[in-house]
From TrEMBL:
One of its GO terms (molecular function) is 4 iron, 4 sulfur cluster binding. Catalyzes the isomerization between 2-isopropylmalate and 3-isopropylmalate, via the formation of 2-isopropylmaleate. Transmembrane segments: none annotated. [4Fe-4S] cluster binds at residues 348, 409, 412. SUPFAM superfamilies: Aconitase iron-sulfur domain. Pathway: Amino-acid biosynthesis; L-leucine biosynthesis; L-leucine from 3-methyl-2-oxobutanoate: step 2/4. It comes from Streptomyces lacrimifluminis. GO terms for biological process: L-leucine biosynthetic process. Belongs to the aconitase/IPM isomerase family. LeuC type 1 subfamily. This is 3-isopropylmalate dehydratase large subunit.
């Protein structure tokens, strides 16, 4: 029997099999750090008199707490400022490269790794952050780890972890015009639930996945963790190689060819078996939006708010009831009638250049509705530069949106100055919509950049196809 991509990468990195609790000891090729969840790991390292084993395979960036309003913008929370300073000091002390606000290479940790060519097929990548799954788009095995594991990886460049099962998500056919990778992954999570991928690594495959850009694949893999899975992967192919070819530090000539041949060999063998398979028909996927307080509580934009009685289990019914109360929604009302006052385009889910282009395309010749605040925050300094080069900044500001000069997590998580007020309601391109995620008592509807931009124009949840041609 053949092996899956995940099995091959796992086997190739296993230093010791079946240790304590049955976990395997994996070698880590790349360790990424940000300011949250790392200060205690460095404290532990120091207390034990240890050093960082491979600072050359470790990279830090400040992203969660940083103000994105300007280079000199102040941290609104002393604890956040302290964490960011600790990251910089710890990285400097241990010889780890760190990207500070204002650096060319600065940005959200999951956005900068691929841009800088740090992530390649077949690698193992870990980071103190659940959305490390994003990097699986390159055929790397990438997942989040906790603070004590960060300390272990810093000290040893290895990690004890349990071998997950393999799940295939096969997406047949072609996505219709107007449907995006975000809609695809939201449709998947609505179908399998927030625990649907638990204990598994999801491999996305099929015609519709093959057709996605690297940006789209990153959006897909990013939200794998919202389905409870350990990681998400896409088999490396010509799209992957074309993206990597232009990245810094890639081999040249015959060395490049040899590398590509190796990457191709990592793809799942035709006779490999998955523990579970879910098949989705891409042609049925429509623009999606969340109505509840977890990403599975989502529906097509043209649907109605469901009632609790439409759910199969008592747990789902209770969760729906609670979500509807928090979101202040009435069952049976149209999602498209929900008024919003905030729009956020950004985050590691949808803060890359393709996402900004998509949002700008919808906004071109249109205006953000009165009373709506639209925030566009690039995922990295490189995305910001590219957006300015392409004149997207002018489209955003011309439409009345706030286009931020500094990259960061911004309103995705509310760990900085970008928070919503109680009772405010956003369409957000981020990945989490739990109670209070973007501000105390604030309400979040997750969607694609296209839906977010269209909603900014009308002031209610809207798919671009429903905008008509009101461009000036
Ligand atoms: C702060 C960090 C640990 C957290 C995560 O792990 O995902 C954050 O990035 C998030 O999106 O909630
Ligand atoms: S952008 Fe949001 S989801 Fe991504 S790492 Fe930052 S806080 Fe987490």
């Amino acid at each position: 029997m053949g092996s899956t991509l995940a099995q091959k990468v796992w086997a190739g990195h296993t230093v010791r099999r079946g240790g304590f609790g049955g976990d395997d000891l994996l070698y880590v090729d790349l360790h990424l750090l940000h300011e949250v969840n790392t200060p205690r790991a460095f404290d532990g390292l120091r207390a034990a008199g240890r050093t960082v084993r491979r600072p050359d395979l470790t990279v830090g960036t400040e992203d969660h707490n940083v103000p994105t309003i300007s280079l000199t913008g102040l941290f609104d929370d002393p604890a956040g400022r302290r964490q960011a300073a600790q990251l910089r000091d710890n990285c400097d002390a241990f010889g780890i490269p760190v990207h500070r606000r204002g650096d060319d290479g600065h940005g959200i940790v999951h956005v900068i790794g691929p841009e800088q060519g740090l992530v390649r097929p077949g690698m193992t990548v870990v980071c103190c952050d659940s959305h490390t799954t994003t990097l699986g788009a390159f055929g790397a095995l990438a997942f989040g780890i906790g603070t004590s594991q960060v300390e272990h990886v810093l000290a040893t460049q290895t990690l004890w972890t349990g071998r997950p099962k393999d799940m295939a998500v096969t997406v047949t056919g072609t996505l219709p015009a107007g449907a995006t990778a975000k809609d695809l992954v939201m449709t998947l999570i609505a179908r399998i639930g927030t625990g649907g991928g638990q204990g598994h690594i999801i491999e996305y495959r099929g015609e519709a996945v093959d057709a996605l850009s690297m940006e789209g694949r990153m959006t897909l893999c990013n939200m794998s963790v919202e389905a409870g899975s350990k990681a998400g992967v896409v088999g490396p192919d010509e799209t992957t190689f074309a993206y990597l070819r232009t990245r810094p530090g890639m081999p040249e000539g015959a060395d490049w060819d040899a590398e590509v041949a190796h990457w191709k060999s990592l793809r799942t063998d035709p006779d490999a078996e998955f523990d579970r398979e879910v098949v989705l028909d891409a042609s049925t996927i429509r623009p999606y939006v969340s109505w509840g307080t977890n990403p599975a509580q989502s529906a097509p934009v043209d649907a109605r708010v469901p009632g609790p009685d439409e759910f199969a289990t008592p747990e789902e019914r209770t969760a729906a009831e609670r979500a509807l109360t928090y979101m202040d929604l009435r069952p049976g009302s149209r999602l498209q009638d929900i008024g919003i006052d905030t729009v956020f385009v950004g985050s590691c889910t949808n803060g890359r250049i393709e996402d900004l282009r998509a949002a700008a395309e919808v906004l071109r010749g249109r205006r953000v509705a009165d009373g709506v605040r639209m925030l566009v925050v690039p995922g990295s300094a490189a995305v910001h530069r590219q957006a300015v080069d392409e004149g997207l900044d002018k489209v955003f500001t011309g439409a009345g949106a706030d286009f931020r000069p500094i990259a960061g997590c911004s309103m995705c998580c509310g760990l900085n100055e970008d928070r919503m007020k109680a009772g405010q309601r956003a369409v957000s391109t981020s990945n989490r919509n739990f109670e209070g995620r973007q501000g105390k008592q604030a309400r979040t509807h997750i969607a694609s950049p296209e839906v977010a931009a269209a909603s900014a124009v009308t002031g209610r949840i809207t798919a671009p196809a429903d905008l008509g041609d009101g461009r000036s």
